[in-house]
Amino acid sequence: MKKNGIIAISPLLVFIGLYLVTSIVAGDFYKVPITVAFMAASIYAVVIGGGMPLGKRIDIFSRGASTSNMMLMLWIFILAGAFANSAKVMGSIDATVNLTLDLLPANMILAGLFIAACFISLSIGTSVGTIVALTPIAAGAAESLGTDVPLLTAVVVGGSFFGDNLSFISDTTITATSTQGCRLSDKFRVNAFLAFPAAIVVLVLYTFMGTGIAEVNSRGDVDFVKVMPYVVVLITAVFGMNVTAVLTLGIVLTGAIGIAGGAFDVFGWFKAMGDGIVGMGELIIVTMMAAGMLELIKERGGIDYIIGVLTRHVNSKRGAELCIATLVGVVNVCTANNTVAILTVGQLSKKIGDRFGVDSRKCASILDTMSCAVQGLIPYGAQVLMAAGLAEINPISIVPCLYYPMTIGVVTLLAIIFRYPRRFS
Q: Which H helix or E strand runs over 337?
């Protein structure tokens, strides 16, 4: 069983070894393209036997790469690419960046973007929607201020997980509470004891870091008409419109304003959208290969093996909470989807919690916070890949700057160890 379990999860180890280890040894994360690393790991996942015919292995891989959730994610990537590049060509990003720099002094740009990402994600309940809306602005501001693009991109990604974790309409919140049998409001109260202190710590850090960012001597004029696509995208997202509809509306607006303002003609608009979609190609390929590879790991019992290993020696309430946190975190690494990770271990976590007297509200909070912390730090997760694609940088370059996911993960572990908050422990 142990040997089979290790073999089942070995494709993930192959990816980590090929991409992370070789890149660290080479001292350059661009030496091994992430697409090549996933291709090699995916081929290995299909090749290793597992007692299944080759045709069935390929079918399982294809099934994982083409689930309804996966296809929806790919649609979002395509629409985001078309919107972001047409907005860039039309001048919307430059105008929005100039407005942002007018509203926020340079030394508050980190803190301001973090607060905006927290508020938007809390309102719309999705990290992806927040990243789509704010990443181009963050990347443009970084270039204008001459500061680190990965850092400002990471600020948006981190803030987006604040709302993804806390929002009442977030899929992770709904999944965590439904599997643990508690109310959304109760889980929110427990989460607030973890998320708000973590956010305050990170906000103070960003405020301090911002003191080293110098003001721009000359800023461009703010063209408010060109800012409208982003304003409309943010407002419609906050009011709960579906993210695909939001992006489609943004694309139409950039086309209409760009053509009316002479930024491009109809064919120029088509080209801008096409270039944006092509620019998302690597992101789409990586996402599909990762999903197929992880489906094979799950089919061969890799997830069950991990669950069995982690639950073998639980013998106390604190141990049960640590086990639940580790369980959802490790499964999240293997699925690259925090909602799927919570669904996968939710019922088992409920049984562990009931057996050792863990409050269901605390259990739901641990599932959500740890899954968001891990999801925010894996370079092949949809959020980091999306942000990297929009900012045109390597996803690995964002990870060291993701202070909020790191902080919320540490706060959650400390809350388990020191039995905090007391009323729920």
A: none
> What is the rounded distance in angstroms from the CA atom of residue 57 to the CA atom of residue 409?
35
Q: Three-class SS of residue 215?
A: coil
Query: Distance between CA atoms of 297 and 300, rounded to whole angstroms?
Result: 5
- Alpha-carbon distances, residue 156 vs 273, 383, 391 (angstroms): 24, 10, 11
Q: What is the pLDDT of residues 283-295, one digit of tens each?
A: 788 888 888 988 8
Exposed (0-12), middle (13-18) or buried (19+): which is 39, by Cβ within 10 Å? middle
Q: Is the pLDDT of residue 270 over 90?
A: yes
pTM of the model: 0.80
Please give the full DSSP string across 213-254, using - where no structure is assigned: PPPPSS-PPP-HHHHHHHHHHHHHHHTT--HHHHHHHHHHHH
Backbone angles phi, psi at 102, to 5 degrees: -70, -40
- Name the residue with tokens 């690995």: 396
pLDDT at 254: 93
Rounded-to-integer distance, Cα 123 and Cα 300, Å? 39
For the segment 197-217, the average pLDDT, to the nearest whole number, is 85
Q: Distance between CA atoms of 373 and 381, rounded to whole angstroms?
A: 11
For residue 213, give both structure tokens. 């960012």
Which DSSP letter does residue 221 get?
P
Looking at residue 28, its amino acid is D
pLDDT at 1 over 60: no
What is the mean pLDDT of the segment spanning 144-160? 92
pLDDT-derived band at 49, boundaries 50, 70, 90: low
Amino acid letter, residue 197:
P
Which uninterrupted H or E stretch holds 16? helix 2-16
d(CA 283, CA 288): 9
Q: How far is CA 302 from the centre of its chain?
A: 23
Check: CB of residue 167 under 8 Å from CB of residue 128.
Answer: no
What radius of gyration do the chain's Cα atoms show? 22
Q: Which residues contact 103 (CB under 8 A, 6 or more apart)?
A: 112
User: Which residue type does 109 have?
Assistant: I
- Between the CA atoms of 87, 253, 386 and 281, what dihedral angle is there, to the nearest 10 degrees? -80
CA distances from 395 to 209, 230, 391, 405 (A): 22, 24, 10, 15
The token pair at 24 is 């660290």
Amino acid at residue number 373: A
Please check whether residue 47 is in contact with residue 53, taking contact to mean a CB–CB distance below 8 angstroms.
no
Greatest Cα pair distance in the chain: 69
Cβ contact 128:375 at 8 Å: no
pLDDT of 424 reads: 65
What is the Cα–Cα distance from 31 to 19, expressed in whole angstroms?
Answer: 9
Question: Mean pLDDT lowest for which of 217-231, 366-380, 406-420?
Answer: 217-231
